[in-house]
Amino acid sequence: MLDIKKIRENPELVKDSLTRRGEDTGIVDTLILHDEERRRLVYEVEKLKQRRNEVSNEIAEMKRKGQDTKGAILEMRQVGERIKEMDNAIRQIERKVNDILLSIPNIPHESVPYGKDESENVEVRRWEEPESFDFEPKPHWEIGANLGILDFERAAKISGARFTVFRGAGARLCRALIAFMIDLHTSEHGYTEVYPPVLVNTESMIGTGQLPKFAEDMFKCEGTDYYLAPTAEVPVTNLYRDEILSHDDLPIYHVAYTPCFRAEAGSAGRDTRGLIRQHQFDKVELVKFVKPETSYDELEKLVNNAEEVLKRLGLPYRVVMMCTGDVGFTAAKKYDPEVWMPSYGKYVEISSCSNFEDFQARRANIRYRPRPGAKPEYVHTLNGSGVAIGRTVAAILENYQEADGSVVIPEALRPYMGGLERIEA
RNA sequence: GGAGAGAUGGCUGAGUGGUCGAAAGCGCUCGCCUCGAAAGCGAGUGGGUGGGUAGCCCCCGCCCCGUGAGUUCGAAUCUCACUCUCUCCGCCA
């Protein structure tokens, strides 16, 4: 959410942001119109309330003196009615203002390149070139099925399309990756582990920006106010919702493993095979709460933390900076580390690291005191996958496959696999 | 699921329908004292928002005592609904 005061003072800035994102700018004028009307009404009703407060005190005084209060009470009864009407009008217009505010995307940082869509994202670096195979490499869904560690048919029977059963060494590989990543981030990168609920309420979903705009992407539990969290970003960022943190609490780094749930509405036909696009997948997520002046340094460190996972696993990757047309609703700046996926013949997103500045903090009301006694200010929030488990499994299977159909376990993972060096049929 | 108790400022904890935004204590900030610190003493310490002035340095107002409605000239205080916490019973991973 953007600051209504800032929008009021500089509507062109917001319009420019929307234009760079390739969106319509009309709502800004509508918003400002509503906001002016709202302020006019507030000003009027507050004068009435002041009058009511004054006279009410006079009535108390008069009663104490035993004077007649009938006239004053009668007058105030009318004032009270008028106040009630105006309060209702204000409530309605405030709802409009708020709905619009919640629907305006974040302003991209000045360092974000202009571009209309994902084709104009900018590659910022690469780590290791993909290995070429001296045999025809198989896609991970074939490798996994042949090894008996991925079972898509039975998952379809249990649940439906876009689900997977991991089995034997496959299941263990998931568990190993989770433990490996959490250990790396806690012991070497300074993150504190949390294990949060994955059923979250509407407030939390609004706080991080999934709602109200992206409701169709989420699973909701019928008859409840619970959504299945699409990412640990939601519960972990909302940890400190409606709190005022002390300046020496910051920065706060959290790492969380959770399953993630996505309806994938509108992506029918895309990535239908394999682990790439699932309704349920596991992810280790990194979340930061930082002082505003440090947030862009923190973003770079966050990306590096995600990259370190891929380096240790020996998976070739590149890092892409999202352009204005693809940076996403909530982010001011975003990097996507992408892993090399032989079956796709290209790099595939395996992490997504964003600086939201105060966009989420304002929605979720997460603040801190810059110094003791100072006015609270909004923190900056960041998060990034560190990294997605399912896609990492896919990347390992494909990049570490051998001609005989077996898969070598990356060395960093072997301690977590009971010393297993290779998955064989 | 049943019965009961409760929800007040960073924390603990008072509160009669009428100067209660709220006592007191703790904590915190500043000052005095001290070579320094502690103790002691003194002062100050909530969050929003509208307007004035202009950018939170001031001034005026409005709102906030779990959330939302209601009664009243006036509600932290009365009524209703909801949420959450705690205790007991039942059920249960």
Task: Label this structure with key terms.
425 residues; alpha+beta; nine-stranded mixed sheet; three-stranded antiparallel sheet; 12 helices; 20% strand; elongated; RNA-binding
- Catalogue the unreliable spans: none
The total strand number stands at: 19
Q: What about the largest sheet? A: 9 strands, mixed
Q: From the alpha-carbon coordinates, what is the Rg to the nearest angstrom?
A: 27 Å
How large is the count of helical segments?
Answer: 12
Q: What does the average pLDDT come to?
A: 93
Terminal-residue CA separation: 52 Å
Based on secondary structure, the structural category is: alpha+beta
The amount of helix comes to 40-55%
Please explain how this structure is put together:
Helix 3 (26-65) packs antiparallel against helix 4 (70-103), helix 5 packs across helix 12 (389-399) and helix 7 crosses helix 12. 36% of the residues are buried. The protein has helices at 4-9, 11-20, 26-65, 70-103, 140-147, 152-158, 169-187, 202-208, 233-237, 295-313, 359-364, 389-399; strands spanning 122-127, 150-151, 165-166, 192-194, 199-201, 219-220, 226-228, 243-246, 252-261, 280-290, 317-321, 333-341, 346-349, 353-355, 366-369, 377-378, 380-388, 407-408, 422-423. It is elongated. It is built from twelve helices and 19 strands. By secondary structure, the chain is an alpha+beta fold.
